[in-house]
Amino acid sequence: MKSNMTIKEKLTLSVGVLVALIVGLVVLSAISLQLLTATDPTSPVADYGLARALIMLLVFGALSIIVGIWMLVWLPSSINRPFMQLSAGINEIANHNYEVELQLTGSPAMEQLSANFNRMAHRLRDYHHSSLSKLKVSKRYIETIIDSIDEPIVCLDPDCRLFHINHEALDILHIRLEDAIGKSAQEIALRNDLLRRLLTGRTAVSANDKKAEPLKIYADNKESYFQVKYLPVRMTGPDGQVTENGTVILLKNITEFHQLDVAKTTFISTISHELKTPIAAILMSQQLLTDNRVGALNPEQKELSDSIRENGERLLSITGELLNMTQVESGVLQLKPHITKPIELIDYAIKANQVQADKFHINIEVDYPKEKISKLYVDSEKIAWVLTNLLSNAIRYSTENGRVIIGAVQKDEHHILMYVQDFGRGIDPRYHESIFERYFRVPGTKIQGSGLGLSISRDFVEAHSGTLTVESEPGKGSRFVVILPV
Ligand code: ADP
C-alpha cells in the first residue's frame, strides 16, 4: 500500500474498503437468496445452487475478515509511525544529540514538520558548538589567570579529583600536569607526601573549624613556610540553593614573615633575659634602701622606694611573661613533669598573691575536697604559674573587699578540675575567646597589664594535654577552669 498517504486518505481508504466489503457481502447474500427462492427446491440444480451460494458467501466473508484484520493492524501503526519518529527525535535532542535528522514522508504537512525539526536541530547544534567553544575559551582564560598567580593553588572537584593545578603547585608537589589533571587526589597522595599533608590538613581544619598551622616544606635545600587556606567552592543553583562543589587549596608563602617572626621572638627573648638582671639589681638595691641599717627614710622617700619596688616587680613579671611567650613561640617549651598534689599548686599561687590580696582586702577562699583526690603528673612550675596568673587576674579585676575562690575537684577518674572564681566585673561573652589571644585586652580595661598572661596560660595547659576555659557574665564575675589529665 502506498505509504505516503495522509492520515485522512488512510482513514477514507480503510472505511471505503470495509464499506465495499460489507456492501459486496450484502449484495452477494441478496443475489444468492433471490436465485435460491426462484429455484424449485426439488430440482437437482437447487442443491448445486445452494452449495455455490454458500461457498461464495464463505469465500467473500473470509476475504472480508482478512482485509478487516489487516486494516486493524496496518491503520493504527501507519498513523503512529511518524509520531513515534518525532518522539524519538525529541528524545535525542533532550539527550544533547543534535546530529539527529527526521525523514517524515506521507504528506506535505509531515514533510514540513520534519524540515522544521531538522532546522531546529541544526540551529541547536550550531549554538551548542559556539557556546562550547566560548566555554572552552573562558575556561582557558580562568586557568591562565590561576597559572599567573605566583602562589601554589590546587583545585579539587567534589569527588576530590584534581580539577586544576597551577605551575607553582606542580613545582612544590613535584608532579607533572598530565599526571595530575582529572586524577584522584587521594590516589596521588599515596605516593606524594606533601599532597597527603594538604589533604589531611583539610579534614583537620574543617573538623576543628580553625586556621591551619603553617606548613614547612624543604625544597631546593632551603626551608619554606606556607600558610594553607582551604576555600570551599560554593555554587548557587538556578533554584537559589547553594551547593558545595569542591575545594581550592591556596598556599601562601610566608617564609619571609616567618623569618621576621623568628627574629622578633629571638629579640624579645634576648632583651627580656638581659633586662632581668638589672631589674633584679634595682629590686635588691630598693630592699637595701628600706633597711634601717642604711638609714631611716622619711615618708616621702619611703613612698618613692615603694613605688620603685612595685614598678620593679611589675617589670620583672612582664619580662617573665615575655620569656615564657618566646619559649612557647620558638617551640622550645620543655616540660619537666613530676607527681604533684593539686593543693601544693594552689598554696603556691595563694602565697604569690597574698600581698596583693591583702592590699585590696580580698579574701581568698580555698575549695578543696576532704576525701582523697588524684595527684597530677605535671611541670609544677608551669601549672603553678598558670594558677598564680589566674588568681592575680581574679584579684586585680575584683572590687575591693571582694572574695575570690581557688579550688580543685576530681572531675572524673582521669581528670582533675582546678578553678579560680571571682565576683568582679566579669567578661562580655563576645570576648570569651579573644582574651586567650596574645596581647588582647578587653576594651576599656583600665587596670595595667600586658594581655599575655591568659594566652601563655592556655599554651602551658594545652602543652599538658589539658584545657583552659572561661565562664563569665558581665557584672557577676568570672570562673577560669583548668582541666588536666592525672
Ligand atoms: P592582662 O591581665 O595582663 O591584661 P591577661 O591575658 O591575663 O592579660 O588577660 C587578658 C584580658 O582579659 C585582660 O586585659 C582583662 O580585660 C580580661 N580578664 C582577664 N581575667 C579577668 C577577670 N578575672 N575578670 C575580668 N576580666 C578579666
Structure description:
By secondary structure, the chain is α+β, with helices and mostly antiparallel strands. The protein has 12 helices and 12 strands. It has helices spanning 7-38, 44-94, 108-148, 167-173, 177-180, 185-189, 193-208, 255-290, 299-329, 342-359, 380-396, 453-463; strands at residues 153-156, 162-165, 215-219, 222-236, 242-253, 338-340, 363-367, 376-378, 403-412, 415-422, 467-473, 477-485. The strands form 3 sheets. The chain has a 5-stranded antiparallel beta sheet with strand order 2-1-5-4-3, with helices on both faces. A 5-stranded mixed beta sheet has the order 7-9-10-12-11. A two-stranded antiparallel sheet has the order 6-8. A hairpin with a 5-residue loop joins strand 1 (153-156) and strand 2. Helix 8 runs antiparallel to helix 9 (299-329), helix 10 packs parallel to helix 11 and helix 11 (380-396) runs antiparallel to helix 12 (453-463). The longest helix has 51 residues, at 44-94. The protein is elongated. Bound molecules: adenosine-5'-diphosphate (ADP). Residues 393-394, 397, 422, 424-425, 427, 435, 441-442, 445, 449-455, 478 line the site of adenosine-5'-diphosphate.
